[in-house]
Design goal:
This protein is mainly α. Helix content is 72%, strand content 3%. The longest helix has 36 residues.
Length: 376
Amino acid sequence: MSFITPEKQLRRRILFFVLVVAFIGLLMVYEASSFYGYRNFHDALYFFKRQLISFFIGLIMFFCMLVLDLRILRKYAKQMLIFTILLMGIVLIAGKTAGGAKRWVNILFFSGQPSELLKLSFLFYCVDYLYRKKGLIGDFSKGVLPIGIVSGLICLLALLQSDLGTAVFWAVWLLLMLFLTGASKKVLGSICALGMVFVIILVLLFPYRVKRITAYINPFSDPHGAGYQLIQSQIAYAQGGFWGVGLGEGKQKLFFLPAAHTDFIFSIYAEEFGFLGVIVLMTIFCCLFYWMFITAGNIRNYFLKLLCLGIIFIFFLEIIVNIGVSGGLFPTKGLPLPFMSYGGSSLVIHFILIAVFINASMSGEKQVEYDEKEKS
């Protein structure tokens, strides 16, 4: 009789809840985008069908990554990162501009935001670096500075694409990873202070960013401009109340809330399912993080453990920022809600990350078994 290990049970729970969120996401993409699709493309299912195709591609990539030897990705982490950086450079020359930012590109087989690929390429590069330099992370010049330069290049490319949020996202993610691996708290504190000063300068240099901050503090100071999205998002929350207005009965998706099927899909969910639905979804996210942290903690291999923790931090930051923005806790930033926001490249990459996480867990479990055989 086959024995199901506790780790295997955790992996099954994680995958099941991820699929639950993905199916909710498909439903909400249809709910939030049908009117946009019909108005712009004469097809109410336009965005839903594209998201559904990405969903199946994501599942295919999930199963492919599940059986892939992660040592291959680790071996070619530098090449993957260089490729991603080149794509981000191409965006500056031949990228597609939308919403005031140039972040999208269409090249041969790739169509989407190259910055999404950082979630795989920079993840593996950074984790491999931190693993190799684990005895030097406490030294600023030998441990923190080299990876900081690479991160700085990525942030610079993001800033040139008018994407301050992505630059801040990866800077915060790297600081978390450095803190986790034993970097000096004094050094990290100094970096945080300098980073905040730099961000303030970048905000003050561009009027549209100043408007965003002003709208964040008081959205009603510019209700038809910078504060419009936040006001409409808050109206969605208010209309949802405790029980929600009901599936398909939401009003904010009727061209009131811009980007309803992308960055603000959580607002549409809150309107239709109410506070109760929000609690259910937040409970699912909390369970996912709890099980993922336990799974990562059970891995003995240091590289695989760091890899899993890096993936957890990516999901954590995305979820916190996306929900925080829709609720008015943070200034407006276009980060997707994992497995829910519309976006093909984002959905596929998130499925790949979950596959890498589960793969790392299985590889870590095999390593434990191998160690036990060696001891015997």
